[in-house]
Every structure is written in structure tokens, then in C-alpha cells.
Design brief:
Elements lengths: L2 H11 L5 E7 L5 E7 L3 H5 L4 E3 L13 H7 L3 E6 L5 E2 L7 E8 L12 H14 L3 E17 L5 E3 L17 H6 L1 H13 L4 E6 L5 E6 L5 H21 L2 E4 L13 E8 L16 H13 L4 H4 L21 E3 L6 E3 L9 E3 L8 H18 L22 H9 L2 H7 L1 H19 L4 H7 L1
Parallel strand pairs: 1-6, 13-14
Antiparallel strand pairs: 1-2, 3-4, 4-6, 5-6, 7-8, 7-10, 7-11, 7-12, 9-10, 12-15, 14-15
Helix pairs in contact: 4-10, 6-7, 8-10, 10-12, 11-13, 12-13
């Protein structure tokens, strides 16, 4: 159905809508945009809705990059609507709908190279040239915390022991614990239904106040990331309505496990066959190429998988966060896991990224790594058997090292684009400078 027809059908089915939220994703995966009244929505579909190109590159505080502004004069780009993402916003007070847009260049004749959604689509298109279609699904962990923080501003658990201290564990897969959170969880499920988000399972996780939510796989990687981004937004918004904070922060508590975002992917040929499956438990040669590519490019992509200073707090032993590029069959201690089960569902589970990562760039970097391995026919090292967690870290272990590897990477430049590489590295350095220039409470405690 053409985009304008999809809009007409949506308006017919939702005649009470008064406001449209137009959502553009920046490099952190944060939704930026504007509210439009219903009578102005046609403007978006007629190519008349613009935002500054710099909106795609704002840092986590919403600040511009001065170098980008100076180079471009803060010119506008034309926002391209994606009518398939139209959905109601059930938590809004007025009848409201939302729609994702991506950024086009100044002339409107092509995508903007600094837009994360467009970068992902360009990677998917490269697979299409080989007759391959990525199939993607995500698993995201998050914490449910109280709205009130303690006197030091530290967030507080919603799941506590009888004395009010944090619960010792999160009752992994705990049915009774899920029942305790049923009103909020049911509200989240109802919101996802209204927004056409294909939620698979919702479980309690390892840590106190920690949950995991999974989405069904999609044969369109961009759609899968649209759904992942909108799911995070829905969870946060519904949680706030219920007096809770839903946090996808990678490591909100130093002494407990962090939040990961695991990406599952396989590849289909033009006949719809899974090319990772060769009817054996080991998988095909193409699977091996893809694994090898993901491993070889993992260090270059760490600035995407671990996008901020807190992300690297998660990268410690015992937190189910991989420290080295390795892989194994049915091995949750490795960076890449090949799940068992039906060979027809043969896939790679990429376990490195935190839940704080931009889903579009995360999937783009993962798929680009697999494509790199396939194009160059790389051979993966032997699969790890047993515990891979107690190893010497070989991936970038500090934020600056990750940024440096990213901005020097020929792989990133070739597969994600020079504009994305430059803007992302500059964004991360701008954020890092802010943290580097602050004096912390721990420093006062230690040195005052």
C-alpha cells in the first residue's frame, strides 16, 4: 500500500486523532521530533516537513556538535515518512498518533548519511545485492525502579527484601514475581498490542527489579529496529504512568548485573531458505563466514555496542557481558552464541551490546560484520567449549579505546559510511569530555 494510502486508512480507522508525534532517531537512538496537529500531517507526506540535519547527531543531552554546525550552516534536511510505523499513543492524554521519519539530504533526492535508520537500510540493501535478506529479533533487559531516589540521587529498586534493602536476586523466570508486577506488565502488553509491536515473551531476569522482553523475528531488519525502539518508548511511558521508572541503562547498580540487548539474526536466500542451515548441527559454511566477520569487526564496533561511560561498567566478569571476541554452540558465556534446536532456525545470537545501545546502529554494525565475513570468506576460529567468561579482555575495555578504534576503522567507514563515522565519534567525544571534566563524589571521599 502506498504511504499516502496507508495514512488515509489510518485516519479512517482512527478518526479521533488530534496530534501526530513525528519521531526522528539521533545517534544515541533517542527519539527527537515535533508534534503536528492532524490537519498538518499531509505536509510530511508531501515532502514539506524539515528538520536540521544536525538533529541526527545530538548528544545525550540534546546538544549540537559545533563542528557540524560550522561546516553545514545548520542546514535543513527533508524528513521522509514511514507510514508503516503509524500507531496510536495509548499513554497520551489527547488522542495522539506517532510515526517514524528518517532524514533525507538537503535536496531530498536521497538519504542523509548521518541518519542511523538510513545507515541500517544501506547495509540491508548490500545484502539484497547478494540475494540475501537478514531476519532479525531482539531481546532487551531493563530495570523497574521507583520514581523516588535516595538522598544521594541513586535510584531505588522496586523489588526489595523484607527490610527494604534490594532483593538478593531477581527470581529468574519467577512466575510469582511476575504476578506481583502484573498490573504494570499487563498494561505494557496492552500498549504493545495497540501499537502493533509483536512481543514474544516477558520474564523476570537475574537481577532484582530486572525484566527481559523479547520481540518476534522480522524479515526486515529496519522494521525490527523500529519495533525495538518503539517498544522501549512504550515500556518507559507505561511504567511512568504506573509510578515506576523503566531504565535500559547498561549498569545502573555497580554490584549487580547490567542490562544487555541480544540480537538474533539469520539470512534468507531468494527462495526463503535459511542459508545458515545445511541440515547439520554445525551449520553452513556461510554461517562460519558470518561468525568470522562478526568476530573480526567486533572491536571496531564496540563504541556502538557500548556507547557511553556507564556501558563499560557492564563489561566485567560475571555479568554475562563478553570481554573477548569468541563464539560457541549453546554457550551463553561467549560473545556469539549459536542456539540449539531446529536446524531450520539456525541463527547467530550476538550478545555484546547493552540495552542502552542504539538498536539501528547496533544491528547495522552486526550485519555489516557478517557481510564483511561473507564477502571476504573469512574462517572462524574453533568454537569455544565451556566457560569463556574467565578470559583476558581483548575487546576495547575503556570508552576512549572504543572511540579510537571506531574513528580509525576502515571497516566502519566502508560499511556504515564516513559521515556516520565522523559524526558518531565526534558525538561520543563531546559526551566523554563532559564526564572527564567533572569531579565525582568518590574523588571528594578519597582525596578531599
Amino acid at each position: 500500500m502506498p504511504p499516502i494510502s496507508q495514512l488515509d486508512q489510518f485516519l479512517e480507522d482512527n478518526s479521533d486523532i488530534e496530534i501526530f508525534e513525528i519521531l526522528l532517531h539521533d545517534l544515541n537512538g533517542t527519539q527527537r521530533g515535533k508534534w503536528l496537529p492532524k490537519d498538518k500531517i499531509q505536509k510530511v507526506f508531501n515532502g514539506g516537513f524539515k528538520m536540521p540535519l544536525s538533529s541526527c547527531s545530538l548528544d545525550c543531552w540534546g546538544r549540537d556538535q559545533e563542528e557540524l554546525i560550522a561546516a553545514s550552516g545548520d542546514t535543513d534536511g527533508i524528513c521522509v515518512p514511514h507510514a508503516e510505523t503509524l500507531a496510536r499513543v495509548p499513554w497520551a492524554e489527547k488522542a495522539t498518533a506517532q510515526m517514524i521519519v528518517s532524514m533525507g539530504n538537503e535536496s531530498g533526492d536521497g538519504p542523509y548519511g548521518g541518519d542511523c535508520r538510513s545507515v541500517l537500510k544501506s547495509v540491508v540493501d548490500r545484502f539484497g545485492q547478494l540475494g540475501l535478506t537478514p531476519v532479525v529479533a531482539s531481546e532487551m533487559e531493563f530495570h523497574l525502579l521507583t520514581l523516588e531516589r535516595d538522598k544521594f540521587g541513586i535510584p531505588q529498586h522496586s523489588q526489595t527484601a523484607i527490610d527494604g534493602s534490594p532483593a538478593i536476586g531477581g527470581q529468574t523466570y519467577g512466575i510469582d514475581t511476575m504476578r506481583d508486577a502484573a498490573p504494570l506488565m499487563n498494561a505494557i502488553i496492552e500498549a504493545t498490542k495497540l501499537q502493533n509491536l509483536p512481543v514474544d515473551t516477558l520474564i523476570t531476569e537475574f537481577g532484582p527489579s530486572q525484566f527481559e522482553i523479547n520481540l518476534y523475528h522480522q524479515d526486515c531488519a529496519v522494521r525490527a529496529c523500529d519495533q525495538g525502539s518503539m517498544l522501549k518508548r512504550a515500556i518507559r511511558s507505561v511504567a511512568h504512568q504506573h509510578g515506576k521508572v523503566a531504565s535500559f541503562m547498561a549498569k545502573p547498580f555497580a554490584e549487580q548485573v547490567g542490562n544487555g540487548m541480544h540480537i538474533h539474526f539469520s539470512l534468507l536466500d531468494e527462495k526463503g531458505n535459511n542459508v545458515f542451515d545445511n541440515s547439520t548441527p554445525e551449520g553452513s559454511e556461510l554461517l562460519n563466514y558470518a561468525v568470522a566477520g562478526c568476530l573480526e569487526t567486533m572491536a571496531d564496533s564496540m563504541a556502538v555496542f557500548a556507547p557511553n561511560i556507564n556501558s563499560f561498567r557492564r563489561m566485567v566478569p560475571g555479568c554475562y557481558a563478553p570481554l573477548s571476541p569468541n563464539w560457541g554452540y549453546e554457550n551463553r558465556t561467549t560473545a556469539l552464541r549459536i542456539p540449539g534446536g531446529d536446524n531450520r532456525a539456525m541463527r547467530i545470537e550476538h550478545r555484546v551490546a547493552g540495552a542502552d545501545a542504539n538498536p539501528y546502529l547496533t544491528v547495522a554494525a552486526i550485519l555489516a560484520g557478517a557481510l564483511y565475513g561473507i564477502e571476504k570468506k573469512l574462517k572462524a576460529p574453533p568454537a569455544v567449549v565451556g566457560d569463556a567468561g574467565d578470559v583476558e579482555p581483548t575487546l576495547p575495555h575503556f570508552w576512549n579505546d572504543a572511540i579510537l578504534a571506531f574513528e580509525r576503522s576502515k571497516f566502519i567507514e566502508e560499511y556504515l559510511g564516513s559521515e556516520l563515522r565522523t559524526n558518531y565519534a565526534r558525538c561520543k567525544r563531546q559526551e566523554k569530555q563532559e564526564f572527564d571534566s567533572r569531579v565525582t563524589l568518590l574523588e571528594y571521599d578519597a582525596y578531599l
